[in-house]
Amino acid sequence: MGNLIWHEYARFVSLTASAYTIWAAFWGVLYRKFFWDFVGGIVRNPGGIQPNPNVSVMITLIVKAPVIQIFAFVLGCAIVMVEYPAPFLKNTIFSRSLLVKTMMLLVQSVLAILFYQGTNGAIWSLVAMGCYIRAQMLGEKVEEAKQNRGRGGKA
Amino acid sequence: MGESWFRREFLTPRRLIFNVGFYGLHLFFFAYGWYSQATNTRLSALNGLKWSVWTSRGAGLVLAFDGGLILLPMLRNVIRVIRPRLAWAFPADENIWFHRQVAYSMAFWAMVHTTAHYVNFFNVERTQVRPEIALDIHYTQAGGITGHFMLLIMVLMYTTAHHKVRAQCFEAFWYTHHLAFFFMIGLYSHATGCFVRDDAEPDYITSFPFYSTEHCLGYESWRFVIWPGIIYFGERVWREIRARRATRLSKVLVHPSGAMELRIIKPSFKYVAGQWLFIQVPDVSGFQWHPFTITSAPEDPYVSVHIRQVGDWTQGLGERVGAGPSVVQSLTQAAMKGKEKDENSQYGTRGDFVELDPSYSARPLPVVRIDGPYGAPAEDVFKVEVAVLIGAGIGVTPFASILKHIWYRQRKGTLGSLKRVEFFWVCRDAPSFGWFQSLLQEVEAAQADPNFLRINIYLTQKIGEDMLWNIAVNDAGAEYDPLTLLRTRTMFGRPDWNSIYSRMRQAVETGQYLPGTNAQLRTKVGTYFCGPSVLAKSIKEACVANSSAHVNFSFAKEHF
């Protein structure tokens, strides 16, 4: 496929997925629900799904206290900072290593798949991860960030 | 950018009208969707979900509107037909810009709609207003499945449409953007799950549209927004049919600068100067269509495009016609040698182009298909009295056709109101566009009236010492410019547009510029620019600043 630079493309997907996850995690705090609660759960009218007691750990971490959502929120913000990259992260190991980004995306997709709102964020994180893995397989290197050399249109 | 966001968006009348109309309509549809849901007594059970269902219905209606709008700017053939009639009403050449605005708006409202639905389904499950759980709606019903698919397609389409990706690998953008087909299917069938209904179970029927409008109370917006989709699909089919009409690649010329000139004969292909076309070479790629500017004039018996071998497709094409990079390189070297040999002649030549002889190679010339032509504002040059043609860098290509066309019209004496042509060519290094120079040479040599066409070439690159000496020694007193081999002198550095335009205005006003024109009439000076947008802005500012009661400077920009 042409001369597509995979890690540069992956960055866009990763930013999108992380932004989605941040937004989803925010709503996940307001409307708490364990995504997998239908497994072994029973439906009550009214009240919705009553999850299986076997998954009470997840219910504690997601419904009783939104721990997973807050983790996902923080991690999403961290990925956006690494990818953008935030000024203090420029040219550090975080914004230059494709492996670090892949790992962060993997954790993000694991966190996001656990709560109700995060599914798409998890899938898109996996897509971004796949692109990063492809970039590493092709041996792509992150280019040195350009120093302050001015922008086009400005003298 | 120098000017503030507020100034650009709100203090420019045209942009203000667009913003108020475009975003006003969006807000109106949102409000209407909200209101009609909130006040519908038949949907009172759904209204128990409160603000989230009102928001999702409102945003859904806005998205339907956007889904109808997004294809409108892509109806290239329709735009080409209506452009001359409606150019005053909307900038038909800004179609890609409009497409992007709709896309941005679509992303925003998709966020609103999806967020609201996540809350809706959560509450449907909790209150059991319908006997189903949230994930049933998300992943087993038409609305949820198509919605999630459309979001995924949007992620892929938006990310590959980034200008960086398009520049790196146009194919990635080109192929991914065809997911739009599935996106549109998803959009039109999004409501077939009958989510908006007045009873607990959906009321499906066996005939089209497979749900009963007695109980399914959606907006039925697909009845409206499907039309642009159908027209677009028809247009694609029509383009395919048109592309299959008899087309023959008659000649391939290789210019010493490395550009290939394809001369194509297609009798059914009618165009005007300054337009562009899509070209496909099935031997190189069966699906890809690549845009190129037409460089022949409509009077020519063939359609020609000049292709430089810069990307993988153009290189593949070069290999296929037997003009691969190695061939071109040796040609260029031969041309340079030839130049050295000719040194003691009056002036050097850049070496002539070489025609590739198809019988010479084992394979015949490849089959090509062309699709087009598509519009560009430079069709209007004959309506103004003075045409200022400005090409920057590779943006000079459409002017090849225009200059040739003007030349043909000049010979026939059908120039319309056009009295003078000022041609500006701003580029970093002129020698890389050798083929264009040879064209300019022809046009310049054919000028009978020395004042009709004036060629101004500006070279903006930093000049090395060798080149400086070369110019200093060779330029003085020579009949031809040593760099471009034109009679016109090359100027160095960036042009100062403001002073160029103000001098032109003064000359027009004092009657020196256009002898015999009545000073009481307003002289129309049209500027036609092709090149980077930073330069476009400064030229446009100079045009606006110098318009006076007697001279009207207008500005038009071309896009690729």
Automatic annotation (TrEMBL), chain A:
The keyword Transmembrane helix applies. The chain crosses the membrane at residues 12-30, 67-86. The keyword Membrane applies. Keywords: Membrane, Transmembrane, Transmembrane helix. Residues 1-140 form the DUF7727 domain. It holds the Pfam family DUF7727. This is DUF7727 domain-containing protein. It comes from Steccherinum ochraceum.
TrEMBL record, chain B:
Signal peptide: none annotated. It is a multi-pass membrane protein. GO terms for molecular function: superoxide-generating NAD(P)H oxidase activity. InterPro entries: Cyt_b245_heavy_chain (IPR000778), FAD-bd_8 (IPR013112), FAD-bd_FR_type (IPR017927), Fe3_Rdtase_TM_dom (IPR013130), Fe_red_NAD-bd_6 (IPR013121), FNR_nucleotide-bd (IPR039261), RBOH/FRE (IPR050369), Riboflavin_synthase-like_b-brl (IPR017938). GO terms for cellular component: NADPH oxidase complex. Gene3D superfamilies: Nucleotide-binding domain of ferredoxin-NADP reductase (FNR) module, Translation factors. The chain crosses the membrane at residues 16-35, 55-75, 139-160, 172-191. This is FAD-binding FR-type domain-containing protein. It comes from Steccherinum ochraceum. The lineage of its organism: Eukaryota, Fungi, Dikarya, Basidiomycota, Agaricomycotina.
